[in-house]
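W.,

You were right to be curious about this one. When I first looked at the sequence I had no strong expectations either way, so I just let the prediction run and decided to look at it fresh. Below is the sequence, 143 residues in total, followed by the output.
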Amino acid sequence: MKRAFRGLMVAILVVSVAGLMGCAAMQAEEESGPMVYNSTPVVKMDRKATFVDLYGTGFAPEEEVRILFTGPDGVQSDVGYALKPEPKVDANGNWVARWNASRYVAKKLIKAGTATITVTDAEYNTIATVPVAFWEEKKKKKK
C-alpha cells in the first residue's frame, strides 16, 4: 500500500511541476513582447535573386514599423524601399515582408557572414532584432 501511495505522490508531483513549467513558459512568451522571425536564416548571395523573408508577431495593432539592415561592418541602413510587400502591422499585431537584397549584393554592401535585421517603430526605436547569415558559393576553378 505504501508503494502505491508513493507512486501516486510521485506522479502528482511530476504533473504539478510540468504544469508549473508550462505556465511559466506561457507567461514568459506573453511578456516577451514583439518578435521578428527570419524564415530564410541562411541566404545564398546572388546578384539577381537574394531574398530574405521576414515576419513579425506581437506588435501593436496598426503600428508603423521600419526594417533596418546592419552588416558585419556595423553600418546600418533602412531597407524599406526594397520590401515587398511593405510591412503593415494588421489588427492582430502581425506583418510579413520580403527583402530583395540583390542590389546590396551587386554593390558588395553585403559580404558573407552574419548580419542583423532590426525592426523599429516610426521614430527608429528598436522593437526587435533577428540575425541573418549570408553565404557565397565558391567559384569553381577552370582547368
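Here's what jumped out at me. Confidence is low (pLDDT under 50) at residues 7-30. And, maybe more interesting for your project: Helices lie at 2-31, 102-106.

Coffee later to discuss?

I.
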